[in-house]
């Protein structure tokens, strides 16, 4: 699964695919000329094993979430999408029609301009094929063709520029995509663990952002809890690692919200940040992301480590040398690294060794922090939050002992944010067991955060996970 610079298909295959798509278009005026994206996409082949809904993983070592915190999450699923990412994006009608998705889609439909939602999804050509974009890539700020990060349609409230840089000089927003990996992983991905990477960072007094997929998290829920306990920032990277522009609006909502709900079920927090797999994003996807309350985080193209750029892993020394070349005073930046299969975890560990060696030798090292810290924003936001509701929740804090209090009511629904006591159930919380799942769309706008901030912070702090 490759998030960084991809291997292109053979030119003849791409041309044939583009011609086939063009032949299906009703007319030149009715459909834009397909644009071949520069990133590959893992798409389930036609003969893939059918998807199946999955119950919450039964892992004895998981630490339960307080029932009052679980009750605050409206429409917590009882069944989850298939965790095997090779089967393609979420496609089961029963999961797409679940209250979690229907409420989220209703919120998006109410908030996003219909002209953006009407943009056609891109077309995929089969397993690990190129994505053929069906709209004007320039007008719709389609990143894979022109590295566009700033939409020109600035009048839309929820259409926000991608986050690509840190605010302060000589600051690195360190982050890793695709994990967590662990003893049980995606098929063919090996069993090198993200846990070792998190612990290595902790030993160096560093924290990072982990853009996690729902599928990888489902296989390794204890690893996700461990990353959070170590103070790392958790962010959403979809459930199946599907290219976002190729999905329907309903599927985009499902990919984000099932991952959000799974993270919440494990750590009681709702992330602020989202990264589109392969950097596959346009204005339609950005608007949906914003309406769901997420900021889209990309990276600076010159700071792409390329650790998953080919089927043959590059030498570790070359990865270290590339990262080391970034160690100069410069404007703040966000890089792109991964933590899933064995080689990329080895790259990440070797790079951290290089950072430690530079520090020991008195050489320059930038300030290394998670993305939220480098943006001077909280890692987590209240449930129901949408971009434009507030400029920022609070100063960032990713440590389990303080993140909830620092961010206000980061774990509650509207009732918790307003300082009310959420409903609770007796005994350990089970995802989906809350009787409060009414299917209502979470309220948006400043009124959502009304009430006593002090009471909200106290309520959230009282409910925080005691890891």
TrEMBL record:
<dbReference type="InterPro" id="IPR006311">
    <property type="entry name" value="TAT_signal"/>
</dbReference>
<feature type="domain" description="NodB homology">
    <location>
        <begin position="170"/>
        <end position="365"/>
    </location>
</feature>
<dbReference type="GO" id="GO:0004099">
    <property type="term" value="F:chitin deacetylase activity"/>
</dbReference>
<dbReference type="InterPro" id="IPR011330">
    <property type="entry name" value="Glyco_hydro/deAcase_b/a-brl"/>
</dbReference>
<dbReference type="GO" id="GO:0046872">
    <property type="term" value="F:metal ion binding"/>
</dbReference>
<keyword id="KW-0378">Hydrolase</keyword>
<keyword id="KW-0479">Metal-binding</keyword>
<dbReference type="GO" id="GO:0016020">
    <property type="term" value="C:membrane"/>
</dbReference>
<keyword id="KW-0732">Signal</keyword>
<dbReference type="GO" id="GO:0005975">
    <property type="term" value="P:carbohydrate metabolic process"/>
</dbReference>
<dbReference type="InterPro" id="IPR050248">
    <property type="entry name" value="Polysacc_deacetylase_ArnD"/>
</dbReference>
<dbReference type="GO" id="GO:0009272">
    <property type="term" value="P:fungal-type cell wall biogenesis"/>
</dbReference>
<dbReference type="InterPro" id="IPR002509">
    <property type="entry name" value="NODB_dom"/>
</dbReference>
<protein>
    <submittedName>
        <fullName>Chitin deacetylase</fullName>
    </submittedName>
</protein>
<feature type="region of interest" description="Disordered">
    <location>
        <begin position="417"/>
        <end position="437"/>
    </location>
</feature>
<dbReference type="Pfam" id="PF01522">
    <property type="entry name" value="Polysacc_deac_1"/>
</dbReference>
<feature type="signal peptide">
    <location>
        <begin position="1"/>
        <end position="23"/>
    </location>
</feature>
């Amino acid at each position: 699964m490759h998030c960084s610079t991809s291997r292109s298909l053979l030119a003849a295959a791409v041309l044939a695919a583009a011609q086939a798509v063009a032949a299906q278009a009703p007319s030149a005026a009715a459909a834009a000329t397909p644009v071949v994206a520069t990133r590959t996409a893992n798409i389930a082949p036609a003969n893939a094993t059918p998807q199946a809904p999955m119950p919450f993983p039964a892992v004895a070592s998981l630490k339960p979430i307080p029932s009052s915190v679980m009750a605050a999450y409206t429409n917590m699923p009882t069944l989850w999408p298939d965790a095997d990412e090779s089967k393609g994006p979420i496609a089961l009608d029963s999961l797409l029609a679940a209250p979690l998705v229907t409420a989220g889609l209703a919120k998006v439909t109410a908030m996003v301009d219909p002209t953006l939602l009407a943009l056609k999804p891109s077309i995929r050509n089969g397993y690990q094929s190129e994505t053929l974009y069906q709209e004007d890539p320039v007008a719709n700020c389609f990143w894979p063709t022109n590295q566009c990060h700033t939409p020109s349609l600035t009048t839309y409230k929820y259409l926000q520029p991608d986050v690509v840089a840190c605010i302060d000089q000589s600051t690195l927003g360190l982050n890793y995509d695709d994990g967590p990996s662990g003893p049980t992983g995606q098929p063919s991905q090996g069993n090198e663990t993200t846990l070792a990477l998190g612990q290595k960072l902790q030993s160096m007094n560093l924290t990072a952002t982990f853009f996690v997929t729902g599928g990888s998290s489902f296989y390794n829920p204890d690893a996700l809890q461990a990353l959070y306990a170590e103070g790392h920032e958790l962010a959403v990277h979809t459930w199946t690692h599907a290219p976002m522009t190729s999905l329907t609006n309903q599927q985009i909502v499902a990919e984000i919200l099932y991952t959000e709900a799974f993270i919440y079920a494990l750590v009681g927090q709702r992330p602020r940040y989202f990264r589109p797999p392969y950097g596959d994003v346009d204005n339609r996807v950005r608007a949906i992301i914003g309406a769901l309350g997420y900021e889209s985080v990309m990276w600076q193209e010159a700071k792409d480590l390329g650790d998953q750029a080919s089927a043959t892993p590059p030498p570790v020394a070359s990865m270290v040398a590339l990262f080391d070349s970034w160690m100069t005073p410069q404007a703040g930046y966000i890089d792109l690294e991964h933590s899933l299969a064995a080689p990329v975890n080895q790259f990440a560990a070797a790079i951290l060794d290089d950072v430690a060696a530079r520090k020991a030798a008195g050489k320059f090292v930038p300030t290394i922090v998670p993305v939220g810290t480098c943006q001077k924003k909280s890692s987590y936001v209240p449930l129901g939050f949408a971009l434009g509701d507030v400029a920022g929740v609070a100063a960032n804090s990713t440590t389990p002992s303080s993140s909830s209090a620092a961010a206000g009511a980061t774990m509650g629904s509207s009732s918790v944010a307003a300082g009310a006591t959420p409903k609770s159930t007796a005994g350990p919380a089970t995802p989906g067991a809350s009787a409060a799942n009414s299917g209502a769309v979470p309220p948006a706008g400043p009124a959502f955060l009304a009430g006593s901030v002090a009471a909200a912070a106290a309520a959230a702090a009282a409910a925080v996970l005691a890891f």
